[in-house]
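Service request form, structural biology core

Requester: graduate student, group of Dr. S.
Request type: structure prediction, single chain
Budget code: on file
Notes: please return the result as structure tokens.

Sequence provided:
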Amino acid sequence: MKLNELAPEKGQRKSRRRVGRGVASGWGKTAGRGNKGQNCRSGGGVRPGYEGGQMPIHRRLPKRGFKNPFKKTFAIVNVQDLNRFDADSVVDEVSLIQMGLVKGDRDGIKILGDGDIETPLTVRADKISANARQKIEAAGGKIEVL
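Core staff response, request fulfilled:
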């Protein structure tokens, strides 16, 4: 058997429906859209959520809570994740992104104290927990809060 002889088994692939190709095809004339009305026209149809003039469900249901537009979201990095870095290296936002520890949209980086650290590092972050600060300094590292 050669590559050019490969073919799917009989009945495995279904040919696509070609509408509007004559009455004999079964999908001619109105092409499966029915007679008259908004949905039979080109560009017809209604937007998502439209319920024919009835009050839509997303407007009937009560809204709850408050979305703070000024909320700050911080990327969380634990102390145990900093063991990937070499001793005496500087850990900042750029190096954390390169290591794949920080991704996505954020307003800053916060270091938390989960786990242990063995290597002395210089850590530059926007926020740092008291537990993380204690562990980094105990390992011989330095902390710079931005």
